[in-house]
Design brief:
- Helix content is 18%, strand content 36%.
- With 228 residues, the chain is of the alpha+beta class.
Length: 228
Amino acid sequence: MNARVDHLVIAARSLDEGVRWCEATLGVTPGPGGAHPLMGTHNRLMKIASAAFPRAYLEIIAIAPGAKPTRGSTKHRWFDLDDAHLQATLARGGPRLVHFVAEVPDAHATVHALGRTRLDRGHVIEASRDTAAGRLSWQITVRDDGQRLFYGALPTLIQWGPVHPSDSMADSGVALRSLDLAHPRAPDLDVALRTIGLSGVSLANGAPDLHAVLETPRGTVSLHSGGI
């Protein structure tokens, strides 16, 4: 297995609120994104690639107003977006880092490998959307309950088709320098991260947290998930 950080997930109550957060926090207006009818969500994207994370980007995601997921009423949206505690936290404190996604060469094989460690990363779902640069297609893991697992510190897995979204993104002036994880069950999480072959990310025992450090037009910015 050989996984690498693909993108950071910033959850917001609304996409407009997420854009305002990005401008105020990182000093940059995010680029265009798209809609996800399967999940009833939409996003904005921004390239944050660096030498350590060469294809990384940032995703600001929110539930699309009035949109009902086409995957079915009994299945939750990805990234815990239907979780009442998460939404309450966003209402109190605004958009924040909640999760990250790791790119893998074979999503099905990686899910099966995690299953052997008794971790259910979810079903592998096929998705696609058209962009100005061409059609994006990918396979991504989503649990029926929408849970991120390990407070977001166990990445969702994604396998891209021939086109990666960051290939056509303009440089934003923001670069991801590091991503550090903490969790009170660090040994269990370490087994999972080793199983998927994730490198370039540190893990410590402690209160749940994702800590991303970015270089931005506003200087060095640290983002924390804070265990939501």
